[in-house]
Amino acid sequence: MADAVPAEPEPKRPKVDQEGSKQNDVDAKEYMSEDEIDPADWIKYLKQVKASEGFDIDDFAPIIAEVAYDITIPMGPMETWEDKEHEMVFGNAKKAIAKFNEENGTNYEFVDVVKANYDIVAGYIFYITFLAKAADGGIETFQAKVYDGIPGDGESAFEIYFCRIKVKN
């Protein structure tokens, strides 16, 4: 009886799921050479994604340049956004606050986007931090996680995962 051939091990690469948790619990040094991303930066990035659920992360340009997939990317200053990006982010924030109002019996009005991050998927998952005004005039900071995807077969490719008032640290 011949010995079974062992399956090849899965490649070890950095991967962050949609909730920002590390899927391959691997030491950064195992999958990065010295001329690639600094392992300390990668670990710092992963911790920020996990702690903030993708909303509050620094711009780790070397990570983005090397990996550029399966990661949450800051969109940068709004004045650098293309018109399409501006329309998508602002439009998605407005839809998110409308859904929040409907679900919570409130009447917040969208004011402005503070910042946005995104994941590239079959479309985008946006992590939008924005301001909204309450009926009494008070301003609250909100966070919305929104999928704005590529429609297919007549199906909707849009989903608001959640919209919430940002927890103050």
UniProtKB/TrEMBL annotation:
Signal peptide: none annotated. GO terms for molecular function: cysteine-type endopeptidase inhibitor activity. Residues 1-31 are annotated as: Disordered. Residues 9-31 have a biased composition (Basic and acidic residues). It comes from the Eukaryota. The keyword Chaperone does not apply. Residues 87-144 form the Cystatin domain. SUPFAM superfamilies: Cystatin/monellin (SSF54403). Keywords: Protease inhibitor, Thiol protease inhibitor. The keyword Protein biosynthesis does not apply. This is Cystatin domain-containing protein. It comes from Escallonia rubra.
